[in-house]
Write the structure tokens for this entry.
Amino acid sequence: MASPINKVFVYGTLLQGEVRSQYMADCKLLKTLEIPGHLYDTKRGYPTAIIDEDSDNKIFGELYLMDRPQEKLEQLDEVEMVEDKQYDRISVKHENVEFYTYIAGPGLSDFCRQNFEIETGDWRAYESISFYDPLAFIRNFEDRQKYLYREPVTKEAKGCIYLKGNTPVLISAPHSSVHQRMGKLKRQEFYTGALTALLNSITGCHALYTNRLMEIDPNYYDESPYKKKLVDIVQSNNIKFILDIHGTGSERGNDIYPGTGIENEFLLGNYDLLEKLETRASIHKISVGGLDVFPAAKQMTVTKYGAKVLEVPSMQLEINRNLREPEKSPKEFMKLIKFLKEYLENLSNLIS
């Protein structure tokens, strides 16, 4: 007897951080997936899709584990208006994993035409809430992220979430969940994972972050599952710059602290990457601390690994908690978002 299906794939407003993401709060994010098919804009603030195994087009989404599948599916059927024939729920098998997803029903079939197709297959890159209300996206995202770190890594959930981009830049957040270093648990660096997901959406950079309790600190040890995923992303997408995001305490005197090695060696001669950061920070009145505070050189940091092993210019960026508290200081967080967005968008001439 076949086991009941306990997974669901979502690709639109149910994605973490998006406007209806609260409906997935009682499910566990396993990983991201790209499945063959077509994504369409319904012009109603949400997409619809058709699964087509023969298509070269891909639909980007997230795969979730449902604790109580029957109850959850009843709720999602209502959310997706299955009874009103807006969506149909179907089962799909992809990469040896079986899951449910929702495709266009008769009520949305008129939108399943070429002139409505979202060519990238990625709702976050097309019409995410992050475009018009980035603080809402950040809060929605972190509301779930801050609980996921309690979940252990499993065979199905490696704890590393990868968001595909379309520029040769990778934003990394290896401490966005709790991690273990030398036998001790270290707390997560709040909002760093949410920040990478946001930047993926609004700038097109690739993003990698942790969302589970990592038994091996990705930013400390020479080998870890996170670094293995890093290698795959860099090699598959011709990544030319790695920006590794971290969070420091509010007791620090400056807003951000770049880390590029003892003598900027992790930039591999691309010193303009640092100069551009400092210039953009000055424009946004963000104070930059000394390079010696967090040089990212003492252990096998992601930055050191990126430069020394993968031969990609890399920079660690420690962000003061005063800039990472959207509930207390939304203006400061918006200043941080605008600064990083403009910095990343102005790198094209440096990494081409």
Notes: The longest helix spans residues 330-345. The chain has a mean pLDDT of 94. Residues 90 and 100 are 6 Å apart (CA to CA).
